[in-house]
Every structure is written in structure tokens, then in C-alpha cells.
Design a protein that fits this description.
heterodimer; A: 307 residues; alpha+beta; four-stranded mixed beta sheet; 11 strands; B: mainly alpha; two-stranded antiparallel sheet
Chain lengths: 307, 109
């Protein structure tokens, strides 16, 4: 309880009694252990919040704390709840005796697992009766380039077996591949449903069929133009950066996006110019400072009107 | 099980007439009969919680039955989940338990 009670409740040191009370009620409701049985840390938070409130809601003790005469830990009232060693309502309500206050949706039948869970086991039992195999669901993480270019990956199954999965060109996160007959055995056997999760790439970003990459260029390259090497998903290519390429300019590399597949044509790659100042450049600074023919221009013209 | 007199001594500040109202509303359901109620451990713990909700958390009188009804549903669900977990631990082979745990950790359906 050595924490600052003002910080615990999230109030200013000059907060009014009403602000303290309101902050306390808000925190107490989200930390009362019987109201938050799934939160293991609730009880500890609840004690801290109560201790802080006990101190700050008593004007005399609050004043003494502010003057530094007592510390936050010194005067802790026993926290609410049962006396030490006794069980809380939570303990009873979660145990077998809790059935006494069951709302009764299951007609008092403690052996019914409720609509959600009994549905799960009911479905399993029916599928077994028909003898056809159930589908099995798996998830497979695929690297960005493998997903864009297509590949074959081996999925390791929980039983130690494996499945070779053909990843089609240009697959995206969330798409589900169906492998017929690779699910649970039966007559007919079920299918394997494989949900694909594509990991992001540090350089490339996919936008539909196109692929974007950020291209850092120096001030000199942006102003004067240059030949630059740009990585693409099929290797590095050399391209001309036109003179006067502003930040944000997108340069198109035709056909270097997601490769053509089926009916869909190949996408394009776009290099997006990002101007980088680089290390301090005293010569450039001196030139900019001393020049007398700079155009009268501000990049922020019209910004205030728009806002 | 304890009588209503013993109950008043157990929970400081709890008033007898409030308890009678809660029983009439069926928010608390002790054993025994009118005039001779007998409170089980869970009834005492429930009354202590109700007392705290009112006194410490300033819960409105009208909201109390709703809050308790929602809490009862929450604890119902938690009891069922605990039963399911116990059943899985008892009946499912370790590799199924592992597969279920992995699936849940993945955040998958």
C-alpha cells in the first residue's frame, strides 16, 4: 500500500471530495473480486483502491498525509470482504453450492453444459452416427513472399503427420484452402480447411494486386534526379528517378507486383519517394543560409484556411 | 447454518428488515421458513456481497436484482466451464488436451 493514493485513484492532489468519491466508485466496480471472478489481479487492485479511498475520503487523514505526517501504508482499515480466512462469495458461487442461485435456464440440471457447449458435443455425436468424416480446421502461417509468389508448404499435424499444402499465387490473410478428403476419416472423409495467415514484410506492403515499397532518396537525388536500385519481389531493378521528384511521388514499375494468375493480370510495384536528410551537411546549410535568390514560397500555404 | 439473529452479528451494519425484503424478492433464498430462516454459508457470503455493493459501491436499490441476476449467470457460466475443464482433464487424451490448448492460444475459433 505504499503507492501514492492520488495516483492509485488517478486524481489530482487538489481533487474535491466528490472527484475522489467518483474515481473510487469507478475503480472499485471494475476491481471488486466477486464482480470480476476471471481477473486474478482484481483482489489486489481492489485492496489498493480501497486503502487509497480510506485515506483520501477522510479529510483529517488526507490533510495529515498531505503534510507528510503519515504515509499511505500506515493507516489501512481492514478491506471489505469476509474476515481473513473465510471464503468469499466467489468461492461459493463457483463451487457446487452455487447451483442454488442458478438462474435456471437449464431447468436446474447441473449436468447440462448450457446451450453453447452442449451444441458442440451434440454435433459431434450426430456426425459420428452418419459415419462421414468431419472437416478439420488448421491454420498456417505463410511468409509474405511465399504468399505473393505462391509455394508449397508442409503443414505439421497435431498427430505428427504432415500435409503438403499448395499455396496459390497471391493468397491473402484470412483465405481458407480446402483439401478434399484430408479431414477426419469416414465415408466420405472430411476435408481439411486451412486458414492462411500471411506475415507482414519489413519492406513490401501489398495493396490489392500492387506492391508498395518506400524508397529513401537524398536531397541531391530528389532535386537533380538519379539512377537508383529498387528491390522488388523478383529481385532488384534499376530505375531512373526523375529530377524534381517530391516526397510522396509514386514511381511505377509495371508488372512487378503480384504475378499474373488465372484470369488476373499481374499487378505493379510502386516505389514511394521518401526524402532523407542524412548526416549534418554544413555546406548545404551554408548555401541555404547565404543564398539570396530563394523563391518566395511556403509549403504550408492554405493550411490554416483548410483548418 | 445460522439464524437471522446470528446473521446480524456476523455482518456488521446489516439490518434485519433489509434481509426480509431481499428474501421476499427472492434475491436471497435461505433454508427454513418465514420467522425461522436458516442461512447457509453461501447465503451469508451473498448477503455480505450485497451489503458491500450498497454501502461501498453505492449501487442503486432498483439495480440490485439486475446486477445479481447477471452475476448469477456469470457464475453459472464459470461453473459450467470449470466442469468442462474437469471433464476434458479426466476424459480427453493428453494430445487432444494439447491440441485444444494450442487452438485456444492461437485465438482461432
Amino acid at each position: 500500500m505504499a503507492d501514492d493514493p492520488y495516483q492509485t485513484l488517478g486524481v489530482a492532489r487538489n481533487a474535491t471530495d466528490k472527484q475522489v468519491r467518483s474515481a473510487y466508485l469507478k475503480l472499485a466496480k471494475t476491481s471488486h473480486p466477486d464482480l470480476n471472478p476471471g481477473d486474478a489481479k482484481a483482489e489486489e487492485r481492489f485492496k489498493t483502491v480501497n486503502a487509497a479511498n480510506d485515506l483520501l475520503s477522510d479529510p483529517e487523514r488526507r490533510a495529515r498525509f498531505d503534510r507528510g505526517e503519515i504515509d499511505a501504508a500506515g493507516h489501512e482499515r481492514p478491506p471489505p470482504g469476509p474476515p481473513p480466512g473465510q471464503r468469499t462469495y466467489r468461492d461459493y458461487a463457483q463451487g457446487p453450492s452455487g447451483a442454488q442461485y442458478s438462474p435456471g435456464f437449464a431447468d436446474g440440471d447441473e449436468h447440462d453444459l448450457g446451450d453453447i457447449l452442449s451444441g458442440l458435443f451434440g454435433a459431434r455425436a450426430r456426425a459420428g452416427a452418419q459415419r462421414n468424416g468431419a472437416d478439420r480446421r488448421y491454420s498456417l502461417t505463410v511468409g509474405f513472399l511465399d504468399a505473393v509468389r505462391g509455394s508449397t508448404q508442409r503443414l505439421v499435424l497435431p498427430d505428427g503427420g504432415g500435409l503438403d499444402v499448395h499455396i496459390p499465387v497471391g493468397i491473402e490473410s484470412g483465405q481458407v484452402l480446402r483439401l478434399r478428403g484430408k479431414g477426419q476419416p469416414g465415408d466420405p472423409p472430411g476435408d481439411a480447411l486451412i486458414e492462411v495467415d500471411v506475415t507482414p514484410h519489413p519492406l513490401f506492403r501489398r495493396v490489392g494486386r500492387d506492391i508498395e515499397i518506400e524508397l529513401p532518396v537524398s536531397v541531391a537525388e530528389a532535386v537533380l534526379g538519379a539512377r537508383v536500385t529498387v528491390p522488388t519481389i523478383v529481385g532488384a531493378v534499376s530505375m531512373a528517378l526523375p529530377a524534381g521528384s517530391d516526397a510522396g511521388t509514386r514511381l511505377r514499375l509495371r508488372g512487378k507486383g503480384v504475378p499474373a494468375s488465372g484470369q488476373q493480370a499481374a499487378g505493379d510495384a510502386f516505389a514511394k519517394v521518401r526524402i532523407v536528410l542524412g548526416p549534418p551537411d554544413e555546406g548545404l546549410a551554408a548555401f541555404l543560409r547565404d543564398r539570396t535568390d530563394a523563391p518566395d514560397w511556403t509549403p504550408r500555404a492554405g493550411l490554416e484556411d483548410a483548418a | 447454518m445460522i439464524t437471522i439473529e446470528a446473521l446480524e452479528l456476523t455482518i456488521t451494519g446489516l439490518r434485519r428488515q433489509d434481509v426480509e425484503v431481499l428474501i421476499a424478492q427472492e434475491v436471497v433464498r435461505p433454508a427454513g421458513q418465514p420467522g425461522a430462516w436458516l442461512f447457509r454459508d453461501i447465503d451469508v457470503a451473498r448477503l455480505r456481497l450485497i451489503h458491500e455493493l450498497r454501502r461501498d459501491l453505492a449501487l442503486h436499490e432498483e439495480a440490485l436484482p439486475v446486477v445479481l441476476h447477471l452475476l448469477d449467470q456469470l457464475y453459472d457460466t464459470r461453473r459450467r466451464l470449470l466442469r468442462l475443464r474437469a471433464a476434458l482433464e479426466h476424459a480427453a487424451p493428453p494430445e487432444v488436451q494439447q491440441a485444444v490448448a494450442d487452438r485456444l492460444a492461437d485465438g482461432g475459433p
